[in-house]
Amino acid sequence: MAKKIQESKEKKALKAMSGTRKDKKKWGDGKKKEEVHKIVTVSEDLLSKVRKDVGRASVVTRYMVGSRHNLNLGVAENILRHLSEEGVIERVRGNSRMTMYAGCASQEQ
User: Fold this and answer.
1) Is residue 91 classed as helix, strand or coil in its secondary structure?
2) What is the CATH number for 95?
3) How many domains does the chain have?
4) In a domain, 25, yes or no
5) Are 74 and 89 contacting, i.e. CB atoms less than 8 angstroms apart?
6) What is the pLDDT of residue 65?
7) What is the DSSP string of 38-88?
8) Cα dihedral sign for 62, 64, 69, 71?
9) Mind listing the pLDDT tens digit of every residue in the chain (109 residues)?
């Protein structure tokens, strides 16, 4: 086997500098979720819209009200409790995690 000829230090340095390697790979930002700002205060206007919408529905949950009117779920739950006390809707079934409401029969007539 033939002996390899040693390259000079300068040639080795030039080879290392002129490599075909590109810039270092950077991590991507990934997918970012669009921020949705929910409403946390209730105006009379919004309350009347919810009252009208809820009166027509056969089944009402806090998620349904929150998603339709862009409300925080806690705020939607408080609105439903308020409307239940007023007699606009009545509580059909519920437990610690979820409560279902329905329009009152007395309101429809």
Assistant:
1) strand
2) 1.10.10.10
3) 1
4) no
5) no
6) 94
7) PB-S--HHHHHHHHHHHHH-SSB-HHHHHHHHTB-HHHHHHHHHHHHHHTS
8) positive
9) 677 777 787 887 777 777 656 667 777 777 888 888 888 899 999 999 999 999 888 899 999 999 999 999 999 999 999 999 999 999 999 888 899 999 876 555 4
Please report whether residue 28 resides in a domain. no
**What is the per-residue pLDDT for 109?**
45
Does residue 14 form part of some domain?
A: no
Cα–chain center distance at 21: 42
For 35, other C-beta atoms within 10 Å of its C-beta total 5
CA distance 14 to 21: 14
Q: Is residue 24 part of a domain?
A: no
Domain interval for residue 77: 44-108
What is the reported pLDDT for 107?
A: 53
- Residue 11 tokens read as 């040639």
Q: Say how far apart CA 62 and CA 101 lie, in whole Å.
A: 9
